[in-house]
Amino acid sequence: MVAVEPAGSVTFGGPPGKRNIPGIGTSVRPKLADFAHPDRVVAVDEARTVEACLSFVRDYHLLIGGSTGTVLAAIQELAPEFSPGETIVAISPDLGEKYMDTIYDPAWVEKKITVLETDKQAALAMGK
């Protein structure tokens, strides 16, 4: 079992950090998490969450929420570890109607998720 959370969340013991996407992650480890024993924890950067959400709406015409985008980004990260024919089960905890003024608002993304532009500049500098 793989637990997925945003980078900066402390739910599964990760280091605390600033998070901008509402509705996902915690600043204080919930007592309920004490009972969770995942085999692995994947912390997903918010830029990758936004990218997964926007990619999904472009490809499948379905608005997904930040939690679902985070899960999809983690699956993309782990995909090379799976063999063809293996079954992956993922929980899609939300849809995107609550994120129209955040994840799906280009001005908000530009202001709050600055890593996106930084990553683009870094990729250009490396010739990608």
Please compute the radius of gyration using only Cα atoms: 15 Å
- Helix/strand order, N-terminal first: EEHHHH
Derived structural class: mainly alpha
> What is the percentage of strand-forming residues?
5-15%
**Strand order in space, largest sheet:** 1-2
Rounded to the nearest angstrom, the distance between the terminal CA atoms is 34 Å
Low-confidence stretches: 118-124
Our count of helices gives: 4
User: Can you give the helix content as a percent range?
Assistant: 25-40%
Biggest β-sheet: count, sense, barrel? Answer: 2 strands, parallel
Number of strands: 2
Mean pLDDT: 88
Global geometry? globular
In short:
The chain has helices at 46-60, 66-78, 106-112, 115-125, and strands at 2-6, 40-44. With 128 residues, the protein is mainly alpha-helical.
Question: Any overview of this molecule?
Answer:
The protein is mainly alpha-helical and 128 residues long. It is 36% helix and 8% strand. It contains 4 helices and 2 strands, in the order ββαααα. Strands 1-2 form a two-stranded parallel ribbon. Helix 1 crosses helix 2 (66-78). It starts with a strand and ends with a helix. The model is unreliable at 118-124 (pLDDT under 50).
Annotate the secondary structure layout.
Elements: E1 2-6, E2 40-44, H1 46-60, H2 66-78, H3 106-112, H4 115-125
Parallel strand pairs: 1-2
Helix pairs in contact: 1-2
